[in-house]
Amino acid sequence: MPGETREAVGLEPAAEGRGTRVLNLRRMTARRTDEAYRSSTPLELFFDLCFVAAVAQAASHLHHDLSGGHLGHAVGNYLWVFFAIWWAWGNFTWFASAYDNDDDPYRLLTMVQIAGALTLAAGVPRAFESGDYLVITLGYVILRLAMVMQWLRAARADPERRTTTLRYAVGYALVQAGWVARLACDQPTYLYVGLALAVGELLIPIWAERAQVTTFHPEHITERFGLFTMIVLGEAVLAATIAVQTAADSRAGTDVDLLVLAGSGLLLVFSLWWLYFDRTTQRMLRSMATTIIWGYGHYLVFTSTAAIGAGLAVAIDALIGHAHITHLQQSLAVGIPLATWIATVWWLRVGPPLRGPAVAASPVAAVLVLAAAWTSAAVPLMAVITAALAAVKTWAVRRTD
């Protein structure tokens, strides 16, 4: 990249006229919000790829616990584990949108965060099986402390937003100390402290950005969240595919039933993709209040997407007699996350640009999906409802264009 191009996007030349340096160092100045052609970097894509392990572990253990009838245990652990995954990924993504200078310290600190993500993923089995969050906490703290170092670098190089960046650094450092101290607590204090710390995590960006808004790039953020949505959709497809393969190998249940369920799962995933990506909009990223709602709302998008895949796997387990739950419970394992997904995506992406009766299509579909759980062909019916919603929404969007 030529020197003038680097300066145009906020990346200063590394070391000119000073001889050869061992490290490529640049000032971590704020990126511009109007950069042209701002897209995900190879490092960001690598970061996402390494988070796949944690997402896969969480979804897999949710599937097995649900099939085993451990419903409360499964949902509680899944929501906690995915909070750590989503929050760590999201914090890096927003920071990178504002301050990615692609020098060697930035790359190395990002790789430390990746190591933390892999450590977190390694701790998921222990969290689900015995409630032991030691390894997950260790991985999470590694992630977050590396993020603190990034914010401190930004504070040094960006005096205009120094108060904001220091608030991020101090806030996250204090909360990480709280997560470590939480390990010494017993129930129910352990749970209450965890809830308080989670709320603290969520409040830090709101508090920090009140001083001076960071220069995130709306199109870049939209792309990054879309890419992670596709990653989680891919995990849903993988979970369902492995379950179908297991069912086919066992030769239990009729081939027709298995084909119908597999086809329904495929139609469902296709419809989810269509609904999310039919129109890319940054309308909710025009103010800090709506940006916070949009970003935080994606916790429900990501968790419900992976949970839908786990629910499809549970439905296939039920087909071959490996699930120790009732038909209603296995139907709701798909229906609840699907209804949550439809309602959340409508709230964040579909509802804002639409007008007229079509605005109500998503809430109605969410209710119908839940009602379908009480039918004998729950998953196929849910897939048809979701596909019909995608068709209605597409027709309505085309009319407004």
UniProtKB/TrEMBL annotation:
Parts of the chain that traverse the membrane: 36-58, 78-96, 108-128, 134-152, 189-207, 227-244, 256-276, 296-320, 368-392
Domain of life: Bacteria
Pfam families named in the record: LtrA (PF06772)
Entry keyword set: Membrane, Transmembrane, Transmembrane helix
Signal peptide: none
Listed InterPro entries: Low_temperature_requirement_A
PANTHER family cross-referenced by the UniProt entry: BLL5714 PROTEIN
Name listed for the protein in its UniProt record: Low temperature requirement protein A
Organism this protein belongs to: Streptomyces mirabilis
